[in-house]
Design goal:
Helix content is 79%, strand content 0%. The chain has 17 helices and no strands.
Length: 440
Amino acid sequence: MPTNGGIRRRWHAVRLPRARDGAAWAIPVALAVDAIGTGLYLPLSMVYFLSVTDLSEAGVGLLLTAATACSLPLPLLVGRIADRIGPRPVVIAGQLIQAAGFFLYLTVAGPISLFLAALFEAVGLRTYWSSVFTLIAEQADDSAQDQWFARAGMIRAAGTGIGTVLAGLLLATASQHAYRGMVLTDAISFIAAAVTVTLFVRGAHRPADGHARGSRDGVRQLLRDRPYLGLIGVNVLFNICTVFLAVATPVYVIRALHAPGWTVGALLTLTTAVVATCTAEVTRRARRRASRGGAMALGGRLWAAWCAAAALAVLLPRGPLLILYLASAMLLWAAAEMVHGPASTALGSEAAPAGLRGTYMGTFQYSFATADMVTPGLFGVLYGVHHVLPWAVVGCLALTASALIRPLERRLVRGTTAEGSPRRRIGGGYGLTRPARDSR
């Protein structure tokens, strides 16, 4: 019979993956602050800018889109910088740039100041998310990376949900003073998160010569690394399924199924709650039974089942039965997201060669950015043909990605980099030697 000490040790291992020093709590705090800030930013920014300027909705929208587009080249550059100096200072810089963006919100009075504020915010956001997963991979034990990425997904879902709820409460007040107060609070919270990472997360020792040389050759090596580029391409297909939830659900449920307006909010709240509370446990169970590529393939099949279920909803009459059916279908999406998300990020991290993880993981973020750009247009074009067609096409994309990922994973496991150095074995085996800790 296990002793109390043994039980406590196993419980601690399940609840909190090991990491260096204060990273086990400091990184989650930073993730939560960023997620809440993002949840506030997305619904509040448009209304806030309309309230403090004389611009039209179209003008504000175009300026926000332009600012976001200007930040798209950043992931690759951020990844190279992270390889040279380490991901920790880049994560801190991303948080401080986002804080600067929110402070600039308070000065917005016209198109130029609006664009600059939105640009700072977009640059900070892109910098942060292009480096934070590299920092997590650097801090966590190899065996705990899936759990770390699972908890990152949970924190992001929960924080974004909280931020969205807070934004909804602020929007209900229709008070410019309330908007400004929340913008100021958001700016200060990002500074607090940056200070937390600065004080409590130690950076790993980085041999200057090897890392500088590796970062210079990293882009060239990445562009010759066909298996990894294939992983990014396949992950775009998976991520279209992720983005498709928020893009397609409101239009389809209200306009095609004629469900009550509150149904959309209830369905999205359900999926957020499930992902925010169950991802770590689902990831732990999935990794016991399948490789990371296998988990991603399972996620794709679950997304295809979700698409099929949503398409068949047109056969049901409007009423409580339809809503219960849609809620059940949403659980398929949540299961797919929980199985795929942590596995894909962990696979992207583990497949990166030594010394180039920042460049590779920064580029891996394009699989998310591409899906964000493609999905709205894809849905709009297909929905214009027939309201069921988007579900059929996205379901086929999910099945295609599921079929491609397993042979691709085998190439990533057995392959070598373009320079001939062995790639680390996925999930163990050829594990890289952990760099020694530095003082900070």
